């Protein structure tokens, strides 16, 4: 009985791993430069936007910031906030606009150096080799759920934020949302506005104003050049990559989120989640501090806008300083979920990247990518789509294309180096 021999490894100049906005942006630049490449996506292109967002999800940045390379937003609502289905339509139109060499449903399971130079890639459709590789699979690979969740009884419904869709998905009763980043705050609001009783564990995520002194804050920060500050020049340099995104929303035409006001409306707030002991949920006594720190961030952004307005002598209306409308009367460190009528929990404490399939010395002692503007210590290996890879807009629709353009220059320099040596 004969057996078909495995096909020889297919060679490409550049392998791009990940078919989200980062991988697609890289592909656009490579295609414009005439460099042969393949984009591997283990699910379907832009899977997270299609299948890991709730029904009322919308962008938190205005539509005009959707400026993927060669495909800036051209709709009639530049200062609006695209809904989930509109985001998917924008991305599908982007793919159709330049027909990238996408291999969808193909998982890359191993990347390593090749003895003769370049890299080997093991994939679910066979082996490949590449002169250079761009790792653009994102930082939202593995949902984080604490091990303490395993001690909850089976009648308590549990969802990660990536699996939440709408309030009807959860059983009748109160819901605990753990985490106050962008997803946690917006999901808590989604439940609250639907008339659900919400308990929210508030972490250390900062918050942002939406409109200040007559303009969208995004416009002010863009005009002032704040969004163009490079990581290496940022005053918070060593910590800015560790910070959670500011919470606000594009819902209802765009507005800020003030958890203190939600507390006045009946949302119960607690400090960071700590543990579960029988039917008792335990929280850190840090609610006051976390709310104060979020407000400090909010006021700092306002101050940046004030400084820009003053420096440019812009005529803009004044606004009164922010006055907190509510403060926690005491720190609540425990809650019996049975007594509170909690029937569901949404874990909104983020994701952790999965780089176990990369057999290259690209990571530090904590497993984080080592890079400068996406260029790794290994010649020919790059990262794209990381938070603060270079600026605030890195990884986002706003500036991921600029990062991809920079990496194109690095890729071309490596390609030309052997010719120069010859």
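Q: What amino acid sequence fits the structure above?
A:
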């Amino acid at each position: 009985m004969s057996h078909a021999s495995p096909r020889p490894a297919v060679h490409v100049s550049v392998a791009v791993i990940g078919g989200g906005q980062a991988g697609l942006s890289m592909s656009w630049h490579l295609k414009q430069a005439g460099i042969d490449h393949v984009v591997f996506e283990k699910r379907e292109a832009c899977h997270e936007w299609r299948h890991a967002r709730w029904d009322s999800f919308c962008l938190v940045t205005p539509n005009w910031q959707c400026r993927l390379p060669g495909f800036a937003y051209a709709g009639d609502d530049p200062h609006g906030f695209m809904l989930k289905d509109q985001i998917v339509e924008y991305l599908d139109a982007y793919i159709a606009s330049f027909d990238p060499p996408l291999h969808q449903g193909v998982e890359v399971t191993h990347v390593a150096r090749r003895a003769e130079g370049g890299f080997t890639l093991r994939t679910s459709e066979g082996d490949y080799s590449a002169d250079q590789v761009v790792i653009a699979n994102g930082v939202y690979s593995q949902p984080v759920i604490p091990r303490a969740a395993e001690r909850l009884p089976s009648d308590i419904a549990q969802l990660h934020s990536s699996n939440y869709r709408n309030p009807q998905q959860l059983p009748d009763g109160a819901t605990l949302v753990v985490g106050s980043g962008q997803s946690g705050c917006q999901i808590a609001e989604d439940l609250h506005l639907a008339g659900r009783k919400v308990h929210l564990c508030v972490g250390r995520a900062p918050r942002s104003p939406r409109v200040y002194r007559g303009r969208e804050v995004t416009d002010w920060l863009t005009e002032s050049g704040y969004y163009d500050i490079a990581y290496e020049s940022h005053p918070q340099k060593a910590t800015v990559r560790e910070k959670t995104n500011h919470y606000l929303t594009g819902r209802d035409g765009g507005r800020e989120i003030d958890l203190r006001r939600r507390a006045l409306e009946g949302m119960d707030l607690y400090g960071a989640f700590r543990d579960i002991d029988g039917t008792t949920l335990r929280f850190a006594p840090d609610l006051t501090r976390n709310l104060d720190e979020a407000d400090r961030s909010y006021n700092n952004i306002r101050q940046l806008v004030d400084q820009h307005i003053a420096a440019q002598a812009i005529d803009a209306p004044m606004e009164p300083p922010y006055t907190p409308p509510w403060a926690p009367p005491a720190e609540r460190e425990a809650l019996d979920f049975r007594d509170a009528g909690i029937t569901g929990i949404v874990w909104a404490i983020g994701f952790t990247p999965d780089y176990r399939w990369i057999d290259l010395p690209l990571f530090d002692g904590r497993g984080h990518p080592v890079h400068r503007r996406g260029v790794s210590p290994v010649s020919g290996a790059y990262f794209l789509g990381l938070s603060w890879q270079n600026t605030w807009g890195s990884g986002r629709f706003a500036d991921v294309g600029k990062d991809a353009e920079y990496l194109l220059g690095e890729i071309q320099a490596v390609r030309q180096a052997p010719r120069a040596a010859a």
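Q: And what stands out in the fold?
A: The first helix runs from residue 21 to 32.
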